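Is this the right way to post structure tokens for a design question? Let me know if I should format differently. Anyway, here goes:
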């Protein structure tokens, strides 16, 4: 039996609290680490340390190292988290050089050679990492474990093993180890939740679409889904674990719309009553009114739409493969079913101009949305957009901690058509124009009266950076 410590880096302040969207900053226990722990907890001594909850993250990490004495320390890093994960691993190695360190996640999957230069990482996981640690512990040689970059013990040379295959049947994955978290410490705002704590569930992996701002290197483009019974079994397990609301994080929950409907039917059949939402953004061309009706009856109160742009030429340029008319229809169908609508928009996309950003803002105001969120299109490593800008020498900063779609302080790239100052100005303008409309304020007030959210909305309004 090995002692394994997972840590979730402290990124909530950097990614949300210090930005324009701080009032809606999410607070979830980490699904990735819970899932990794789920495949290990029966055979090993596992702990998960969420450093977002710590007053002093570095002290908390080193105190846990001292008290728990793990054999392995592992973490997962997206791009804004990568530098702090690296720094924390160096701190661990300085004090506990014999501990084996493992890092995975979307950033190191996109740039494994960058991570491979760092002596703080013993093993770098490339791609899906669900079973890697079990394989590392049972393998006679690291070269037999696919999808990793490791250092030879006799030298500083890194060795890369064969590419890891995608997991064929994700129904076989164990449930996430939610018992390793103090769930009562997590609280989301009323903008994105009805009850706390809120847990995340992944019912499918992979997205067959190829939007140029999206990274497909970890889960790929092959759609793989859990069966409806398995999904609802897992939802029941989450409620029993202490969650009072569930949010879906699938890339495309309604890719197989009949499966999505069957999940709603299964929830109803079991007479389960809990609020849930699909906030990661469903595709407007993969929904219909029957789905929204069934979802509402099954407890869905909010659905997010990945709209991105209000300019059809830009949607075509980024390979979204969707029409504005279909977006408008889908949002109206959700509203007709009585579900709150959340629209996601992105500025500074490929081919973007001032005129196209104006059209996006105008389109957002035309839709019957309860909430709109505007982001700046950050060229994350591993995306076609990053490759496009990198090949044109337009990436001007690789300070990964600033690769946040809500921050406007540090220029990250030179857009072909737009200055950073212009992008920043339209980012601020989008929020002001959408939320400060008399018609929207009146509609929101009526909704808040019905939902009991008036005082919450007033607090959030006062906290916003207009």
């Amino acid at each position: 039996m090995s002692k394994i410590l997972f840590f979730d880096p402290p990124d909530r302040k950097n990614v949300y609290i210090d930005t324009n969207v701080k009032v809606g900053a999410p607070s979830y226990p980490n699904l990735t680490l819970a899932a990794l722990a789920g495949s290990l907890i029966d055979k090993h001594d596992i702990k998960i340390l969420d450093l977002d909850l710590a007053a002093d993250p570095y002290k908390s990490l080193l105190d846990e190292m001292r008290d728990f004495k793990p054999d392995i320390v592992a973490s997962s890093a997206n791009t804004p988290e990568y530098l702090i994960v690296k720094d924390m691993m160096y701190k661990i190695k300085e004090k506990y050089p014999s501990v084996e360190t493992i890092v995975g996640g979307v950033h190191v999957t996109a740039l494994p050679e960058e991570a491979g230069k760092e002596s703080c990482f013993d093993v770098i996981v490339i791609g899906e990492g669900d079973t890697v640690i079990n394989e590392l512990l049972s393998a006679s040689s690291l070269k037999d474990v696919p999808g990793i970059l490791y250092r030879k013990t006799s030298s500083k040379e890194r060795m890369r093993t064969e590419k890891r295959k995608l997991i064929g049947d994700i129904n076989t994955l164990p449930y996430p180890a939610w018992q390793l978290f103090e769930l009562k410490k997590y609280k989301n705002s009323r903008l994105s939740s009805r009850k706390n704590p809120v847990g995340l569930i992944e019912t499918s992996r992979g997205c067959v679409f190829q939007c140029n701002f999206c990274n497909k290197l970890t889960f790929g483009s092959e759609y793989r889904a859990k069966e409806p019974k398995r999904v609802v079994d897992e939802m029941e397990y989450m409620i029993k674990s202490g969650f009072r609301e569930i949010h879906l994080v699938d890339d495309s929950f309604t890719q197989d719309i009949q499966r999505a409907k069957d999940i709603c039917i299964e929830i109803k059949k079991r007479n389960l009553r809990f609020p849930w939402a699909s906030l990661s953004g469903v595709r407007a061309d993969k929904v219909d009114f029957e789905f929204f009706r069934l979802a509402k009856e099954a407890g869905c109160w909010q659905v997010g739409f990945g709209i991105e742009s209000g300019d059809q030429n830009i949607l075509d340029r980024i390979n979204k493969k969707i029409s504005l008319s279909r977006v408008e229809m889908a949002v109206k169908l959700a509203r007709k079913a009585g579900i709150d609508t959340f629209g996601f928009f992105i500025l500074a996309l490929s081919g973007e101009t001032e005129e196209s950003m104006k059209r996006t803002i105008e389109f957002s105001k035309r839709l019957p949305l309860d909430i709109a969120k505007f982001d700046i299109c950050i060229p994350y490593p591993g995306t076609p957009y990053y490759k496009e800008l990198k090949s044109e020498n337009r990436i001007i900063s690789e300070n990964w901690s600033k690769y946040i779609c809500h921050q406007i302080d540090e220029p990250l790239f030179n857009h072909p058509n737009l200055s950073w100052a212009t992008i920043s100005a339209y980012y601020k303008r989008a929020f002001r124009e959408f939320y400060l409309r008399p018609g929207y304020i009146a509609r929101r007030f009526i909704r808040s009266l019905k939902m009991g959210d008036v005082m919450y909305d007033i607090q959030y309004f006062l906290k916003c950076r207009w």
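Format looks fine. Someone answered above. Worth noting: The CA atoms of residues 87 and 441 lie 45 Å apart. The first helix runs from residue 12 to 17.
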